[in-house]
């Protein structure tokens, strides 16, 4: 019985860890090069989900700072009909942000793979 419980626990923990790294369904991933082509387009919303301190230290003109831990509460400030491009430092937080936005009903969410490090 103890062995079965250990196996179940290992499977659940493994699933949780793996699910954190899987891309969200319906989220498009783009490179830094693709992002540069999109910049300046008025029909898109550019969101930087890094902390306010990180954003102040280095940011891209045109990106609005909404830290990941505030995104769910501030998402109503965004237009669900427009594309939302999310960016962070490495691509991990923006991937989480994309999942949050999809769960909140945003249809067109784009993640910048590699984040600021990939630019």
UniProtKB/TrEMBL annotation:
It comes from the Bacteria. InterPro entries: GlpE_sulfurtransferase, Rhodanese-like_dom, Rhodanese-like_dom_sf. Residues 40-118 form the Rhodanese domain. SUPFAM superfamilies: Rhodanese/Cell cycle control phosphatase. Gene3D superfamilies: Rhodanese-like domain. It holds the Pfam family Rhodanese. PANTHER family: FAD-DEPENDENT OXIDOREDUCTASE, SULFURTRANSFERASE YTWF-RELATED. This is Rhodanese-like domain-containing protein. The lineage of its organism: Bacteria, Bacillati, Bacillota, Bacilli, Bacillales.
